[in-house]
Amino acid sequence: MAQSDLFKARTGKNDEFYTQYIDIEKEMNAYLEFDPNVFKGKTVLLPCDDPEWSNFTKFFAQNFERFGLKKLISTSYAVESKNYKSSYQPTLFEVNDPKFDESKTRIKGKIFTLTQDKTGDGKVDVDDLEWTYLKGDGDFRSDEIIRLKNESDIIVTNPPFSLFREFLAWIIESEKKFVIIGNMNAITYKEVFPLIKNNKMWTGIRFNQRLNGKNMTFYVPDDYILSGTEVDIDKNGKKMISVAGTGWYTNLEHGRRHQPLALMTMSDNIKFSKHKEIRGVEYQKYDNYDAIEVPFTDAIPSDYEGIIGVPISFLTKYNPEQFEIIGASDNGAIDEQFKIPHFKKHNEPYIDGQKLYKRIFIRHKRK
Ligand SMILES: C[S@@+](CC[C@H](N)C(=O)[O-])C[C@H]1O[C@@H](n2cnc3c(N)ncnc32)[C@H](O)[C@@H]1O
Q1: If 160 and its partner were Cys, which of 15, 108, 250, 264 is the partner (CB 3.0–4.6 Å)?
Q2: How far does the centroid of ligand 1 lie from the alpha carbon of residue 77, in Å?
Q3: What would the pLDDT profile of 358-367 be if each residue is shown by its tens digit?
Q4: 183 CB less than 6 Å from ligand 1?
Q5: Residue 139 Cα: closest atom of ligand 1
Q6: Across the chain, which distance is largest between two alpha carbons, in Å?
């Protein structure tokens, strides 16, 4: 296999992770709790989906009336265009439909739409979804899907892992509302961090969080070869994989984002902190940043006015009324004024010549 094909196969494998219904439901409930009308009168687009069996399509179709949606649009990507090659069989749903077209099934994407009660049973639900083949393969970058993006108000999906940056840029340029799945590694990407810093995007309710001892867990194709420790089989024998650091990114408001962190003063932290690294020890300054090192979010001193370096996981506790984000150690995403000339020209924070993990720099917001 040529190098580039090998690369495609490897990255393509990670593009085929399918989201569980329960994860979608829990996440969307958090936005509905904050604003019960969040989806009311809205057109929701689910791109990069597999509408015949996707839980995103199922979830929004089943809740169409309850949410007061105007329109639901869901699109899929043609099997021939996918980097991950697996044995493909069109679903019975497709084959049994008069619209089934042998010449299109592998090379065209599909579009499913839901607007009204078609079956005449008095309710709008999954059974009222209408479908057709797209003109193209359903690539989110195609004009066809861009037109659907322009028509929509909210974009919700788990995009292909290998195209995360591109997908995010695709959403951001349209200034739409969105809820998408991604990995925390993306936070310090130079295309991503400015969005977080400027409150144009934040972490959703579930982000880099283990629940019942597990990271967020996805379905994978039947012929996917499972390896490693984070693998699972559900009660129906379906293969699953847990992925560390995964979670939701969004620009929809939710309650947790407005809850202030309860914090102690610096002197109380030094006296009472549960962390041995803090208790009885002075907070240290970095060699190369004009900031103090706080290795645990709950040890942020409530009365420190300067710049504070915190782990990336701080973002799941970030409340924009309480803190301002100044920068990040990666990609030099912090203003020169906060850097101290250092014998090594590295961005990673150092203390006494020892390199530390990536840090985000924050400052208390005072009224
Ligand atoms: C991570 S999966 C998630 C699928 C579904 N949204 C879910 O969560 O169950 C991403 C999907 O996007 C598809 N995909 C890959 N590249 C794409 C592209 N350029 N345009 C549209 N879809 C793409 C993959 O084949 C895969 O079906």
Answers
A1: 15
A2: 7
A3: 999 999 999 7
A4: no
A5: 20
A6: 74
Token pair belonging to 313: 């996981």
CA of 82 from ligand 1 middle (Å) equals 8
> The tokens of 292 are what?
């103090």
DSSP code for 40: T
Kindly tell me if the per-residue pLDDT of 231 is higher than 90: no
Nearest residue (by CA) to ligand 1, atom 6, is: 49
> Is 70's C-beta closer than 6 angstroms to any atom of ligand 1?
no
Ligand 1, atom 12, residue with closest C-alpha: 48
Phi then psi for residue 197, to 5 deg, are -60, -40
Q: Residue 188 gets which letter from DSSP?
A: G
CB 24 within 8 A of CB 232: no
Query: Which residues in 196-211 are b (16+ Cβ under 10 Å) and which e?
Result: bbeeebbbbbbbbeee
- Please state whether the predicted TM-score (pTM) of the whole model is above 0.85: yes
The response to whether residue 148 sits with its C-beta less than 6 Å from ligand 1 reads no
- Ligand 1, closest atom to CA 14? 1
Q: Are strands 43-49 and 71-76 parallel, antiparallel or unpaired?
A: parallel
For 110-120, b where at least 16 C-beta lie within 10 A, e where not — what string?
A: bbbbbbeeeee
218, 20 contact by CB (below 8 A)? yes
Q: What local confidence, expressed as pLDDT, does residue 348 receive?
A: 87
Q: Which two tokens stand for residue 207?
A: 């982000």
Beta carbon of 59 within 6 Å of any ligand 1 atom: no
Tell which atom from ligand 1 comes closest to the C-alpha of 82.
25
Residues 249, 181: Cα–Cα separation, whole Å:
6
